[in-house]
Amino acid sequence: MKLKRLSAAVLAASLFPVAAQAADVEVLHWWTSGGEAKSVAELKKMMSAQGVTWKDFAVAGGGGDNAMTALKTRVVSGNPPTAAQIKGPAIQEWGAEGVLADIDAVARAGNWDKQLPPVVSRVMKYKGKYVAAPVNVHRVNWLWANPEAFKKAGATVPKTWPEFFAAADKLKKAGIQPIAHGGQPWQDATLFESVALGVGGADYYNKAFVKLDKATLAGPTTVKVFETLGKVKTYIDKGAAGRDWNLATAMVINGKAGMQFMGDWAKGEFTAAGKVPGKDFICTDAPGTQNAFTFNIDSLAMFQQKNPAAVQAQAKLAATVMSPAFQEVFNLNKGSIPARLDTPMAKFDDCAKKSSFDMNAASKSSKLVPSFAHKMAMPSATEGAMVDVISQFMNSSMTAQQATERLARAGAVR
Amino acid sequence: MSGSSSQGSLHALADRWLPKLVLSPTLAASLIFVYGFIAWTGWLSFTESRLMPRYEWAGFVQYQALFENERWWTTAANLGIFGGLFILFCLLVGLLMAVLLDQKIRAEGALRTVYLYPMALSFVVTGTAWKWMLNPDMGLQKVVVDLGFTDFTFDWLVNPDMAIYTVVIAGVWQSSGFVMALFLAGLRGIDDSIIKAAQVDGASLPTIYRRILIPSLRPVFFSVLLILSHIAIKSFDLVMALTGGGPGNSSDVPAIFMYQFAFTRGQLGVGAASAMMMLITIVAVLVPLMYMETRSAKRV
Question: Signal peptide: which range, if any (chain A) (predicted)?
Answer without folding.
Answer: 1-22
